[in-house]
């Protein structure tokens, strides 16, 4: 276990303030300063530069803070798992909106057989899911957005087609050869900032020298069910995972945008903090019960 100086430095790195750090830890400001100086002497490099009123964490300090955060989360998770038998444990994981519809039901059927007393699933966007893993709020997450593969361990669970969709009543679906630039006069329906599908679409648009302001109108909604309803009412076009609107495509109420050069399948992954005490258990669980679906 790391001593109290490391926790003090982690708090300082988060707050950016000696005063706020002292208040949170119920110690004096000089005590914070003394602990940071003592830690710098021990590690052999500067952690903080301070020129009133600006406090900055050095690049080395940022790396150390990330390590401390990870170590604190993992040590607490390990202690919790050792203190409590699995039959009394609570398992908490996060899932994005898209994966909650596509993957969570299957995963829940697997997890319920593992003997946990309580299983909690937080449905959030990709950014929040990664933050919850990093803070220890969740033990792992199901996401479809981009993430740092140096920081997080992961296993692929599914490759899901990412498609452009509109109402079957919209004349645009009868154009035999659309490009993304042909759609800028349309209303674009997208998920909120931090969501995986928004990030994926933004990356695709950027590759074609387009950005969201190039579209006539952009409507942002956090709920994919609301986006689906607006599509059915011919309120615009959207880009999302095929499974979300599979039934509507099959019934003919919605139609894929005819874009011959737009063929994309995106990974949906189970993600955890590298070095997590749950790492080997998660890998084994996936290998035994959840085959990759393409």
TrEMBL record:
Transmembrane segments: none annotated. Gene3D superfamilies: Periplasmic binding protein-like II, Winged helix-like DNA-binding domain superfamily/Winged helix DNA-binding domain. PROSITE patterns: HTH_LYSR. InterPro entries: LysR_HTH_N, LysR_subst-bd, WH-like_DNA-bd_sf, WH_DNA-bd_sf. Residues 1-58 form the HTH lysR-type domain. GO terms for molecular function: DNA-binding transcription factor activity; transcription cis-regulatory region binding. The keyword Secreted does not apply. Keywords: DNA-binding, Transcription, Transcription regulation. Belongs to the LysR transcriptional regulatory family. This is LysR family transcriptional regulator. It comes from Levilactobacillus bambusae.
């Amino acid at each position: 276990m790391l001593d109290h100086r490391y926790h003090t430095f982690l708090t300082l790195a988060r707050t950016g303030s000696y005063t706020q750090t002292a208040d949170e830890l119920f110690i004096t400001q000089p005590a914070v300063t003394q602990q940071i100086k003592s830690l710098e002497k021990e590690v052999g490099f500067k952690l903080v530069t301070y020129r009133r009123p600006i406090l900055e964490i050095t690049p080395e300090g940022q790396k150390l803070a990330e390590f401390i955060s990870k170590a604190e989360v993992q040590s607490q998770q390990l202690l919790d798992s050792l203190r409590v038998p699995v039959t009394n444990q609570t398992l908490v994981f996060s899932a994005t909106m898209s994966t909650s519809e596509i993957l969570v039901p299957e995963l829940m059927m697997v997890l319920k057989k593992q003997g946990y007393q309580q299983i909690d699933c937080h449905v959030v966007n990709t950014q929040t899911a990664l933050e919850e893993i990093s803070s220890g709020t969740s033990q792992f997450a199901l996401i479809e957005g981009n993430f740092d593969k140096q920081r997080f361990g992961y296993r692929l669970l599914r490759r899901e087609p990412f498609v452009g969709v509109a109402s079957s009543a919209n004349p645009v679906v009868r154009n035999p050869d659309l490009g993304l630039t042909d759609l800028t006069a349309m209303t674009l329906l997208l998920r909120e900032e931090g969501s995986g599908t928004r990030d994926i679409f933004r990356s695709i648009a950027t590759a074609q020298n387009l950005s969201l302001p190039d579209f006539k109108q952009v409507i942002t909604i956090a709920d994919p069910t609301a986006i689906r309803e607006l599509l059915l009412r011919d309120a615009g076009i959207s880009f999302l995972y095929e499974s979300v609107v599979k039934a509507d495509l099959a019934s003919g109420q919605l139609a894929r945008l005819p874009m011959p050069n737009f063929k994309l399948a995106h990974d949906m992954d189970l993600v955890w903090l590298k070095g997590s005490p749950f790492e080997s258990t998660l890998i084994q669980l996936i290998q035994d019960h959840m085959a990759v679906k393409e």
